[in-house]
């Protein structure tokens, strides 16, 4: 005879399930509202995110100037900002000048490549004649003419995107300057504005989040450097021109997941095709695919999992989920967001645990004004 269910235990289980379901729905509703608020304020949040990412790269230099050479915060921030702009301009020169110098060779290579494609298409198995190719070109031209209005709309959209990108970049640079200048004074000021335990909890979580964000940017830069070195070495062995610009382009686009690697790889294969031929282009393609596979499946998960305290599988799942939810930007921000969520979770778990939490590292002193807090009326920036 089967055992009968206990009525009290069944009611207790159903009651617990109902409470947990209601709490889960409340959390999901709060997350939905938060995402909607972020989406509404994205024009301000996106420059802020870019400024924070850039600041993590430039802050060690500003900190060195302030701590070792005793520079004033404004002077150190201004010098680092100008130095960053000079480096970015130098990177553009390294990419643009060699391409401009070899533009004639590249143009001849493009013409030869098109001629080779026509010769290949005219042979078996396609057997396209000149009339077939001309008819195909006429069809393409007619299709373009029929979609002229759409092309104009796409062009205007692209121009708006470029203008928005320029505005975002300028705003991010200004924010970076203020972060470098006033960042260390933000947390003490914030602690004085918050009541009770929040005066300790919020600055502690923000300090750990800042360290985690810096670890992410450094690990991404390291992975991009590995891509640039290995792909550049492969291009040099094959004999492809413009090795240095292509390596720099690979390093820069490594900060843009998926699309960045595809764009840099497409440019390298195209240059190899128009200058070296099909065989070398296929070799370059094989090199890029091999390096990208090593980066995506070995280097990036290993480096980021160690620097961010996340398992490699969590990194891969975060990138996949971010890309599915928000495209390129979601893939870019997925790993740091997952790391920040992990920081908050670990801190809350420490506070709820019976074991004493590990001591926080001592903050580095600020020799400029070590005991001079920001006035209550001042609104310092955040690092």
Automatic annotation (TrEMBL):
Membrane topology: Multi-pass membrane protein
Top-level taxon in the UniProt lineage: Bacteria
The organism of origin for this protein: Paractinoplanes lichenicola
Residue ranges of the TM segments: 12-34, 40-62, 74-100, 162-180, 215-238, 244-271, 278-294, 314-345
Subcellular location: Cell membrane
Family per similarity comment: Belongs to the autoinducer-2 exporter (AI-2E) (TC 2.A.86) family.
Broad class of where this protein is predominantly found: membrane
Taxon lineage: Bacteria, Bacillati, Actinomycetota, Actinomycetes, Micromonosporales
Disordered, as annotated region: 352-383
Keywords for this protein: Cell membrane, Membrane, Transmembrane, Transmembrane helix, Transport
Name by which UniProt lists this protein: AI-2E family transporter
């Amino acid at each position: 005879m089967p055992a009968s269910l206990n009525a009290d235990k069944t009611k207790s289980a159903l009651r617990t399930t109902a409470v947990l379901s209601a709490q889960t729905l409340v959390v999901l509703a709060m997350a939905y509202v938060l995402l909607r608020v972020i989406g509404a304020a994205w024009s301000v949040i996106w420059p802020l995110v870019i400024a924070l990412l850039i600041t993590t790269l430039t802050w060690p230099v500003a900190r060195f100037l302030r701590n070792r050479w005793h520079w004033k915060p404004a002077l150190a921030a201004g010098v680092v900002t100008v130095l960053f702009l000079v480096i970015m301009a130098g990177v553009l020169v390294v990419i643009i000048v060699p391409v401009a110098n070899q533009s004639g060779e590249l143009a001849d290579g493009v013409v030869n490549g098109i001629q080779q494609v026509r010769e290949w298409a005219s042979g078996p198995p396609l057997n396209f004649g000149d009339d077939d190719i001309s008819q195909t070109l006429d069809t393409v031209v007619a299709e373009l003419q029929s979609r002229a209005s759409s092309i104009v709309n796409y062009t205007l959209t692209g121009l708006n995107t470029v203008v928005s990108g320029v505005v975002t970049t300028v705003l991010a640079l200004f924010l970076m300057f203020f972060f470098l200048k006033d960042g260390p004074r933000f947390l003490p000021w914030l602690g004085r504005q918050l009541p009770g335990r929040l005066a300790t909890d919020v600055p502690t979580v923000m300090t750990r989040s800042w360290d985690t964000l810096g670890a992410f940017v450094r690990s991404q830069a390291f992975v991009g450097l590995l891509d640039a070195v290995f792909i550049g070495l492969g291009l040099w062995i094959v004999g492809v021109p413009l090795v240095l610009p292509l390596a720099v382009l690979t390093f820069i686009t490594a900060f843009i997941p998926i699309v960045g690697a595809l764009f840099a790889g497409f440019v390298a294969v195209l240059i190899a095709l128009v200058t070296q031929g099909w065989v070398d282009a296929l070799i370059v393609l094989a090199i890029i695919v091999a390096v990208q596979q090593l980066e995506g499946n070995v280097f990036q998960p290993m480096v980021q999992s160690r620097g961010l305290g996340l398992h490699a599988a969590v990194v891969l799942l975060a990138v996949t989920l971010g890309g599915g939810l928000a495209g390129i930007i979601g893939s870019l921000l997925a790993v740091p967001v997952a790391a920040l969520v992990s920081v908050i979770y670990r801190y809350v778990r420490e506070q709820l645990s019976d074991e004493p939490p590990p001591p926080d590292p001592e903050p580095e002193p600020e020799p400029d004004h070590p005991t001079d807090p920001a006035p209550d009326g001042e609104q310092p920036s955040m690092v």
